[in-house]
Structures are given as C-alpha cells and as structure tokens.
Amino acid sequence: MDRGYWNERYGTQELIWRADPNRFLVEEVERIGPGRALDLACGEGRNSVWLASQGWRVVGVDYSSVGLAKARQLAADRSVDVTWIEDDVVTWMPPQGAFDLVLVLYLHLPAEQRRQVMAHASSALAPGGVLLVIGHDTTNLNEGWGGPQEAAVLFTPEEVVADLQDLRIERAERVKRTVATDAGDVDAIDALIRAVRPL
Question: What's the pLDDT at 33?
C-alpha cells in the first residue's frame, strides 16, 4: 500500500476511522503526564488530536496529503494545535531524544521497513519516554476480524520486542478489541507493546 492508495482511501467526506482515539492508547496514556508526543503514520489524526486535547504538544507524521488535510480539519474542529508533517515514516528521521511519547499505531509494513521505523521511533524517545506500538497481530489473519490480509505485514508482540533491544519492555501481549459490525460484535486481535527508554 503506497501513498496513492492512502490518498484515494482517505478521499471521502467522512472520516474513514472514528474521530475517537484508540481505546488502548487512552488506557496507556492515563499513567503519563502530558509532554511531547510523536504520532507516526497518524492518518486522519484522531489520536494526535485527542492527545492535544489532553494537553500534549503533538507532532503527527504521515505521507498522505489527503489524510493530513482531514487531520488538520479535525484539529480545527476540536480547537487544538498539532504540528503536521507530510513525509514517509520509513525514511523520515525524527529529532533524537525529543519526545516523551511516541506512537506507532496500526502501521503495517514488511519486517525490514518495520524495523527501520522502530529504530527511528526508539531514537526519538527522551529518557523515560514511552513507545507505544499497537497493530493487528499475526493471529488476527485467521482467528480475528479485519485488518490487512497479508501475513508479511502483520506482527507479533515478540517480533516487535526483538526490534527494540535498547528499550525496557513493560508490556508485550495480544489483546482483543471488540468491533461493532452490521452482523454484530466481533473481536480483532491486536499486538500491544509498551516500551520505555531507560533514564
């Protein structure tokens, strides 16, 4: 999936995803005081905008100009300020040690590119900073609902942990996320990893 795919996918009046933040993000951030946050592959900006509404100073990065236009509108509608950067998170280099929270949510890439993003995300953390990675787990392909249908871009908690050798892992597990569909509620299976840059 490239920039053209996402520009086309985001090319609707309505948000593709809900405007509400990811529920796991909300749970994890409750323990952290507001600071500087980086949202990699922020899409339409729902998580960036929510963080800004909670007092965080947020930078959202995505390569879809259409997604970022919707993110800017959502931020304006919610009367919050977010710094938006149009770039490819695989090659974009964040400032080192600049963020107290870095998000990599539902970014699905081949393993080599995923490792590159994780290295950049890790380097962006200040001492004590938290990296939160959430995405469709590999088991979701056959046991869960939705998400990419290519095994090569899915991951397990263990695979992400292996990418983060210089961080302290605080949580790495599979979690179920209930999704409402026309046919009723179904479960998606996500991998959730919370890692910290040692002080």
Answer: 87
Q: Name residue 159's amino acid.
A: E
Angle at 2 between CA 112 and CA 141, to 5 degrees: 65
Residues near 165 by beta carbon (within 8 Å), at least 6 away in sequence: none
**Average per-residue pLDDT for the chain:** 92
Let me know: does 29 contact 100? Beta carbons within 8 Å.
Answer: no
Residue pair 48/39 in contact (Cβ under 8 Å)? The answer is yes
pLDDT tens, position by position, 115-128: 999 999 999 999 99
Question: How do residues 29-87 score in pLDDT, each as one tens digit?
Answer: 988 889 999 999 999 999 999 999 999 999 999 999 999 999 999 999 999 999 999 99
Biggest alpha carbon distance in the chain? 48
Walk across the sheet containing 184-196 and list its strands. Answer: 83-86, 57-62, 36-40, 99-105, 125-136, 184-196, 168-181
Enumerate domains of the chain plus CATH numbers.
3-196 (3.40.50.150)
Are 49 and 78 contacting, i.e. CB atoms less than 8 angstroms apart?
yes
- At which residue do the structure tokens 């280099």 appear? 93
Can you tell me the distance from the alpha carbon of 66 to that of 89, in angstroms, rounded to the nearest whole number?
Answer: 16
- Contact at 8 Å (CB) between 127 and 98? no
Q: Return the pLDDT at 5.
A: 56
> Cα separation of 88 and 86, whole Å?
7
Instruction: Report pTM.
Output: 0.90
